[in-house]
Amino acid sequence: MEFLLISLPIILITITVHECAHAKVADLLGDPTPRLAGRLTLNPLSHLDPIGFLALVFVRIGWAKPVPINPYNFADPKKGSLLVSLAGPFSNFFLAFIIARLYHLLPLAYGDIWSMIIQYSIWINLSLGVFNLIPVPPLDGSHVLEYFLSYDQLQGYYRLQQYGFVLLLAIIMFGSPILLAVIEFLYKLLM
Q: Which residue ranges make up each domain of the chain?
């Protein structure tokens, strides 16, 4: 219960920043779609998916509403999609870095509530950033990978998208030690 009380507000802020970053970069690159959809905001309610939020509470794995974009509004659709996809995870890494700097500047006692909140914030931001870079649909990493694939490779990759959810579950179940090792490495780097 304590974990939920502390982590849920952090997760809401983290997800909101992540999704807003996607929307802001798309808007800056010339796509008004996120703005017109009301997603260019730091209001968490605009980004929450009710089922994804409930899954987050009860299963500890959830999702937000994806930010709608139209890559044909970008000067270079492929590069624009890459930059929009990287914006979410980058915002989480940046937020983790800023929070870690604050942690080192503030006179906090290890183990007190504020110290715990800051450490959770760093861990959650790093986790969301790393997890979203996995190149499996519908995660951001899948769109990053698309940038580097040839036309023929893309066609094969698109056929795999129907298995994205199954692949994602397998990675969560069996690939967690690798993900945790990456997150832990980054966490130690910041702390």
A: 2-190
